[in-house]
């Protein structure tokens, strides 16, 4: 609290400095403990003390008699003021009589923090009256000047700082506090160079500007960091104040104007201009600026030589670009584009030029520049040589056609490996197949055929999912489909489990060139054989199950958790026998439907929902089931990408 009160008294001194320094009255200020904090030149002359000496004294030393000091203090304590004669004592002990007007000084909370006293010699007669009148008039003028200065200093948005002759801050206005984010109590008594951090990029310039002291002859631009760390720029105008008698520098008044936004804009413009120039000179594209009012190019980047084969002077001289360089079949494209630009239509076109006897392609884009009357006055654009791109585009287009034709042919081959469903209906009365590849080629396949097993020809149902999809999956599916069909005619195969064992051995043999280079690709498969006379269903599965629907309930025939192909832990495939009755419906499927993302939350459909949906529609004929399954799949998928190949096969046991 004490330091704050001293700061308030010091503020009062600064505001009234001009009045105090020039007053003919003896003016002193003491704190609430009686220690002197201000003693003007008139008082110093009257009492014989220097300012330094008096600041170390108690106010009691100014009085000749202790009882008079007590009388003044008692009046101040009771009424807050005192007016009357007092007997004073000079430094040399000489006694003289003064008239004293003293009043308490208060802070914003109304607490007394010190005393200000104004006194003068007591003189008799006309001389006393004349001196009093002279002093009153002079003080009145000084007060008016002080009021004007105070009003200006506190109301302007510029930062105002008063320092002593060596640059220590004596006072600042609120605008300077706001600008620097420092409170006056933090600034008081410090040099700006000691308190404010200078940016590293400005240190050399700062030393050059203020190394020899403040600059009075012209404003200077200065960069500092605020207390919070933000960078700011300001213009500082310094005005010296000299002592009238000695001519020595007494104090400095500095007016600080923030120019941070302006400086940022200035630096951004410089940077953008440098960047634009560097871009224009280093990249292959040609930048241009065409003035439609003057009908002339105002800027063409120098690299036009490499793109158009002419110097930039070709354009500045007004030579006819379209007739001279543009391919005759494309001249209308550029003419129409530039006419459209005058009609406030920007353009993006491609055209050909002839350069050294070679046909080259140019991609040109132009944008409008409009004046304050919303009229097109200029066109800014960029032209790029896209010859290599066009050539590569042609190569890519041919490659795309070749690949598309190859995939289409491969699709025909794959479709040829699938059974002819019209022929299948000759020995399967009621069945369906929902088959939907992710792309043109599929890693899924199905088989509806007959197998010669133990001298009997038995119906066979197979659904398989090979590793991958698209071209890799299709290649493997064609191979695996061939292996499945080979097992159907192999007289040494007597069950679906044996069929999977045979296929696994063949795949491992095909994919392994040595023990260290073994491919783990293969297939998941469900393999069923129906023995009508014995009313049995034989099943083996590799990461697959066969689901049988009977009387509204699901019966699961489980396969093995291993695929057909190489693995480190190979086990024999399990043989499953199941007694069937008429009306049973058997389903095999890959995981494509269950794994499909979709719905309102883009989540997987899941296997349990596939089974619930089939159960819900189990009373429908098999062909009708296929239709509603497809509708459900497409509705779930919506606009999302298909996740995998899909295959669902259903057969009714008759």
**Cα gyration radius (Å):** 51 Å
Category from helices, strands and their pairing: alpha+beta
Q: Biggest sheet, in brief?
A: 6 strands, antiparallel
Count of separate DSSP helical elements: 21
Average of pLDDT: 81
Uncertain stretches: 1-13, 124-128, 145-153, 513-517
Strand content: 25-35%
Q: Give the beta-strand count.
A: 30
End-to-end Cα distance: 104 Å
Bin the helical content: 25-40%
Inertia-based shape: elongated
Written account of the structure:
The protein has 654 residues and is of the alpha+beta class. 37% of the residues lie in helices and 31% in strands. Strands 17, 18, 21, 22, 25 and 26 form a six-stranded antiparallel β-sheet that branches. A hairpin with a 4-residue loop joins strand 11 and strand 12. Helix 16 (387-417) runs parallel beside helix 18 and helix 18 crosses helix 19 (496-511). The radius of gyration is 51 Å and the shape is elongated. Mean pLDDT is 81; it is low at 1-13, 124-128, 145-153 and 513-517.
Topology summary:
Layout lengths: L1 H14 L1 H6 L3 E6 L4 E4 L1 H7 L3 H4 L11 H14 L1 E9 L5 E12 L5 E10 L3 H31 L3 E6 L4 E4 L1 H7 L3 H4 L4 H4 L7 H8 L9 E6 L5 E12 L6 E10 L1 H23 L3 E6 L4 E5 L3 H5 L4 H4 L4 H5 L5 H12 L4 E9 L2 E13 L5 E10 L1 H31 L3 H4 L6 E6 L7 E10 L2 E11 L3 H19 L7 H16 E3 L2 E2 L3 E10 L4 E7 L2 E6 L2 E6 L5 E2 L10 E4 L5 E5 L7 E2 L4 E2 L2 H10 L5 H16 L8 E7 L2
Antiparallel strand pairs: 1-2, 1-5, 3-4, 4-5, 6-7, 6-10, 8-9, 9-10, 11-12, 11-15, 13-14, 14-15, 16-30, 17-18, 18-21, 19-20, 21-22, 21-25, 22-26, 23-24, 23-27, 27-30, 28-29
């Amino acid at each position: 609290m004490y330091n704050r009160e001293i700061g308030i008294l010091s503020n009062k001194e600064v505001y009234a400095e001009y009045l105090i320094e020039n007053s003919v009255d003896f003016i002193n200020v003491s704190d609430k403990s009686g220690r002197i904090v201000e003693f003007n030149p008139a008082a110093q002359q009257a009492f014989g003390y220097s300012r330094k000496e008096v600041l170390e004294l108690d106010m009691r030393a100014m009085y000749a008699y202790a009882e008079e000091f007590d009388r003044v203090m008692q009046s101040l304590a009771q009424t807050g003021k005192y007016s009357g004669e007092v007997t004073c004592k000079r430094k040399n002990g000489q006694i003289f009589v003064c008239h004293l007007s003293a009043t308490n000084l208060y802070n914003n909370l109304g607490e007394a923090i010190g005393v200000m006293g104004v006194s003068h010699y007591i003189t008799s007669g006309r001389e006393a009256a004349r001196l009093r009148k002279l002093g009153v008039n002079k003080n009145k003028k000084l007060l008016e000047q002080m009021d004007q200065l105070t009003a200006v200093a506190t109301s302007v948005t510029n930062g105002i700082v008063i320092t002593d002759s060596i640059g220590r801050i004596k006072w600042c206005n609120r605008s300077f506090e706001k600008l620097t984010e420092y409170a006056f109590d933090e600034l008081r008594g410090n040099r700006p160079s000691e308190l404010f951090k200078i940016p590293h990029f400005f240190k050399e310039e700062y030393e050059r500007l203020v190394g020899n002291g403040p600059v009075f002859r012209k404003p200077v631009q200065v960069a500092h960091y605020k207390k919070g760390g933000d960078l700011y720029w300001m213009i500082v105008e310094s005005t010296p104040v000299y002592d009238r008698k000695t001519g020595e520098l007494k104090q400095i008044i500095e007016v600080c104007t923030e120019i941070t936004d302006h400086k940022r804009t200035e630096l951004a413009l410089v940077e953008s201009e440098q960047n634009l120039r560097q871009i224009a000179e280093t990249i292959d594209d040609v930048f241009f600026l065409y003035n439609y009012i003057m009908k002339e190019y105002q800027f063409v980047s120098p690299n036009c030589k490499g793109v158009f084969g002419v110097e930039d002077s070709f354009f500045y001289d007004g030579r006819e670009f379209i007739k001279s360089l543009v391919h005759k079949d494309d001249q209308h494209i550029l003419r129409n584009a530039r006419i459209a630009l005058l009609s406030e239509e920007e353009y993006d076109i491609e055209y050909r030029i002839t350069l050294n006897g070679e046909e080259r392609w140019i991609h040109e884009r132009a944008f409008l520049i409009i004046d304050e009357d919303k009229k097109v006055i200029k066109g800014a654009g960029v032209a790029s040589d896209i010859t290599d791109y066009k050539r590569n585009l042609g190569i890519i287009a041919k490659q795309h056609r070749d690949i598309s034709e190859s995939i289409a042919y491969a699709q025909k081959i794959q479709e040829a490996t699938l059974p002819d469903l019209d022929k299948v209906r000759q020995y399967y009365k009621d069945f369906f197949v929902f088959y939907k590849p992710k792309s043109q080629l599929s890693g899924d396949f199905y088989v509806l055929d007959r197998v010669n097993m133990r001298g009997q020809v038995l119906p066979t149902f197979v659904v398989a999912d090979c590793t991958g999809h698209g071209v890799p999956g299709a290649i493997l599916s064609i191979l695996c489909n061939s292996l499945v069909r080979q097992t159907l005619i192999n007289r040494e195969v007597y069950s679906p489990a044996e069929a999977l064992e045979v296929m696994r051995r063949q795949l491992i043999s095909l994919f392994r060139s040595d023990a260290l280079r073994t491919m783990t690709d293969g297939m998941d498969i469900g393999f069923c054989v129906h023995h009508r006379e014995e009313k049995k269903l034989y099943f083996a599965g590799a990461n697959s199950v066969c689901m049988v629907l009977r009387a509204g309930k699901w019966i699961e025939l489980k396969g093995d958790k291993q695929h057909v192909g190489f693995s480190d832990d190979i086990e024999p495939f399990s043989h499953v026998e199941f007694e069937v009755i008429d009306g049973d419906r058997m389903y095999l499927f890959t995981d494509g439907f269950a794994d499909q993302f979709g719905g309102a939350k883009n989540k997987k459909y899941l296997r349990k929902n596939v089974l619930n949906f089939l159960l819900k529609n189990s009373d429908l004929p098999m062909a009708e089931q296929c239709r509603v399954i497809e509708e459900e799949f497409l509705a779930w998928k919506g606009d999302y990408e298909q996740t995998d190949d899909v295959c669902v096969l259903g057969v009714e046991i008759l």
